[in-house]
Design goal:
By secondary structure, the chain is mainly alpha-helical. The chain is built from five helices and two strands; from the N terminus they run αααααββ. Helix content is 53%, strand content 8%. A hairpin with a 7-residue loop joins β1 and β2. It starts with a helix and ends in a 22-residue tail after the last strand.
Length: 175
């Protein structure tokens, strides 16, 4: 690849990231605030009110009940795991191909230990409204050109930026 082509691709990626950051900045700010409120007791009182109350010798009680509710929703999801099923939808579809694809998807989920990535993404979605995981490929071994697909967690869902989209799951985002 020529340096000019690399520069053009990098510029396009930077422009897309800036646009995605600008379009979603308010939601991400709220999501980060939600996460802080969930895990940090210092976020439960505004700093100026907390300082004023402490100066007057008044308590600033924090009784954080949110983790219990997050755990309840996440626990329900773990007890009733969603699954993927490939279904032929019309007379043009091939039921045998649907069966093969269903088996392949189950294989990918099993070798990936995908439950970890799914649980992580779901817990983030419950906690702050953003959850993500990644599907990638890797070579089977060093001496082969064969590849396998894997589902892997993304530990910080706020590190993922989507292009402009209308669907809540970003399925219509172009980048």
């Amino acid at each position: 690849m020529t340096p000019e082509r690399e520069s053009k691709i990098l510029k396009e990626a930077q422009d897309r990231l800036k646009k995605a950051m600008d379009e979603d900045s308010e939601n991400r700010s709220n999501a980060l605030s939600d996460l802080k409120f969930l895990v940090d007791e210092n976020e439960h009182w505004p700093a100026n009110i907390k300082t004023e109350r402490l100066a007057e010798g008044r308590p600033c009680l924090v009784i954080n009940k949110l983790p219990v509710f997050v755990d309840q929703v996440v626990g329900d999801q773990r007890m009733n795991r969603p699954s993927i099923k490939v279904v032929p939808v019309d007379s043009e579809s091939d039921p045998e191909l649907a069966r093969i694809l269903s088996g392949w998807i189950k294989h990918v989920l099993a070798i990936s230990k995908a439950d970890i990535a799914i649980d992580n993404g779901f817990e983030h979605a419950v906690s702050c409204g953003y959850g993500a995981l990644r599907v990638l490929t890797d070579y089977v071994d060093d001496n082969s050109f064969d590849q396998e697909a894997f589902v892997k967690p993304i530990t910080n869902a706020l590190a993922v930026y989507w292009g402009k989209h209308e669907e809540y799951d970003c399925s219509d985002a172009m980048y």
